[in-house]
Model the fold of this input.
Amino acid sequence: MSANPLRSGLIDDRTGDACSVVIFGASGDLTRRKLMPALYNLGVGRFLPGAFAVVGVARREKSNDDFRKEMKEGVEKFSRRKPIDQAVWSDFEKGISYVPGTFEDPKTYQKLKEHLAEIDKERGTRENRLFYLAVSPSDFPSIVNGLKEANLVESTPQKWTRVVFEKPFGHDLASATDLNNTIRRVFHEDQVYRIDHYLGKETVQNLLVFRFANSLFEPIWNREHIDHVQITVAEEIGVEGRGKFYEQTGVTRDIVENHLMQLLCLMAMEPPISLDADAVRDEKVKVLKSLRPMERTAVAENVIRGQYGRGFVRADEVPAYREEPDVAVDSRTETYVAMRVFIDNWRWGGVPFYVRAGKRLSRRVTEIAVQFKKVPHTLFHAGDGGITPNVLAMRIQPDEGIAIRFTTKEPGQQTILRDVAMDFRYGTAFGSNTPEAYERLLLDAMRGDATLFTRGDEVIEQWAFIDHVFDAWAKGGNAPPPAYPAGSWGPEQADDLLAKDGRRWRKP
Amino acid sequence: MIPSVSPPRSTTIAAIEKQLRDLWTQTPGEISQARACTMNLVVVASRDVADRYLPIVDEVVLSTPARAILVALEPDAATSILEGDVSAVCGIEENASCSERVRLFASGAVCARVGSAVEALLVPEIPTALVWLARVHVDDPVFSALADDANRVVLDTEYTSLSSLLQLSRWARSAAGRPNIADLAWTRLAPWQEMCARFFDDPKLTGHAKKIRKLVIRQASDSGAKLGSEGALLLGWFATRLGWKMQRIGGSVRFRRPDGDTVALELRKSPMPANIAPSALTGVSVEATEDGVPITGTLNLEVEGTDAAALLVWKLDAEVPSASEQRVRLSANKGARMLERTLHRPANDPALAESALFAEEIYEEGLVVQ
Done:
């Protein structure tokens, strides 16, 4: 597209390349709730090219019209822009079509190939294809191989093929390695986009800006000034009818292995040499490689898991995890995990990173909190515990923003110290109608920018670290996780994890 | 969205400062409201333009919290007056934040002191945008005092002139530390530029961009009206992107492509719907032929009633398998959206400077629509 002279110097130019987006798993919730509203909103924002099409692929038989109707209902319900703009929708839906078929059946891919060729002729999509696998990971190999058998995987300078994988990418190191190998037999790494929708969130992207566009913080972003870091991904909700899925997953696979590790990387990485996708991902991989491996004995000392019991969340009584549908009455699946992690490199040597994630916790919050060291000498009379250390809290959700806690003098004759917070909130400063993560990520994939996607070696390093934990749990007889009441901040043992270091969890 | 605005309190500068403080002093039992401020937004205009611009400012500060200072000037008035009032502008949703809006009115000799008055009211440590909705003279003491405090100066060549833009650009480039320059008319052109570029996105048609043989620009005006700023800037944009040169032969103007062939230019009038500004762009069409293959691209503004935002209807007539028609919605409440978008765009836009330079040449030729 750069050859078009009228695009030279267009400062708003973020238009995606002409392409067909093919969604496998088009009958699923993700397509209706997230993907189609994201594509529609890109259309409203004029980010979609004129030559554009969306093809749904799923097992159920349905007509193009039925599929369009379903998608319209999804957009009407879940789009951030309401009501739907009929003029824009009527153009958009002309490009929507549906191909029924099972993922194992080679005929599905032949039908798809013929259909895409028709679309190229009718809509000028230039044989550019973005395959989006919104399916269970167990379907990944069938689809990847099906695409290969149908010769739908080629990328040349004239046409591109990219493939987006939804998480989870594997369920342990071995399966992730197998999956990577399967994919690499068919696609080059630069065709592969492993999605972690956290990376599409504005505040996560802002982490890089905050760190590397402000000279104030980088000089103190190290072991000399930082006492410890806490990363929290807390949810109020339980398994929400996904008991079967959760029984096989648990919070460590669902949240820690991907979202939380990515937050850790962005917080701890060195400045990349550029914002080029590989430059950023190289630095993240270095962080993952620097994580101190969790040997079996270290797991017992550094990792706490838990499972929610009955309790109250927002004053509503909620059932215990084991009382949820499709959950075993003696389930040992963890719904909470807390870890003490060390990054063994020059910058972070000796600084503990306390990370935790859980369901049915006191409130929904995702944040990175950096606690700085105490002042070396107390000049002022302060209450118990002396002067409170400064904290920089980066809130990812909700109320995205950044707050700095510092100490001031209360007005008056006496020198009385008081903690105050300087609070910047994204929604307040920039309005709340910011693009959804999927909008940013889909557009990036259409434009061939993989910076906000996880590279194969990142995924492997993430699993390599987490696998030690699973290994230790398995070898330790997979003891039942300690229970914590729903609506609390997790099991007491998690408090002890910090208490033995003389610290305590924040209550964000 | 209609903001909630507290009743104004009229007063002078010292009192305005006090009222700005008082605005946020909570009385017992009162529900506290969050305020936010990400920039100083200083708008300068004549009194009638300032009155018309007030709702736009109120709308903009809902999504870009700011201390807005709206200055209405009447320098030719016989009496010297400086007065002002302060209001809080708040969103109506739950937990919406509030901005501060100061209105200043200056008339007569006291207008010269407006720069000092505004400076006293600026929130320190945050960017300042100066929106100047009058003709620009860089040696105007009010302008230079305010522009010195600004990071970005925004004008609207539709209401001032292309000369103002060029004069301002030259002034900004003449010394380090001067503010960046933006033009609301240029921001309004962004969707037109994007959609015009789409005519040539297909690799089979990219070569046609350099073979345009006819360009038609339509604007909302009667026959004989001068080509407006939007049309001139769009023409300048085409010309500078595609390397066209302007030639004058026997008193008429023509455009030559780099390959020496001529580009025919037609400027046409179109009806003036009630909610479209005079001289606003209403349509563009391009015809190009390469290797004997002709294409025609048209882009037309469609207005559905007075409240709805306009649609841009894009059509491409070409022997390629591309979508032949596409519609995109332009933003509703264009004034507020355009200012907001201008404030959020990258500050330095070389294409604007190049296009404006070319546009001024066109403008000086006094091209009129037929």
Q: What stands out?
A: The longest strand of chain B covers residues 81-90. Chain B touches chain A at residues 34, 36, 38, 62-65, 97, 190-191, 193-203, 206, 209-210, 238, 241-242, 311, 314, 316, 320-323, 325-329, 345-346, 349-351 (CB under 8 Å). The radius of gyration of chain B is 23 Å.
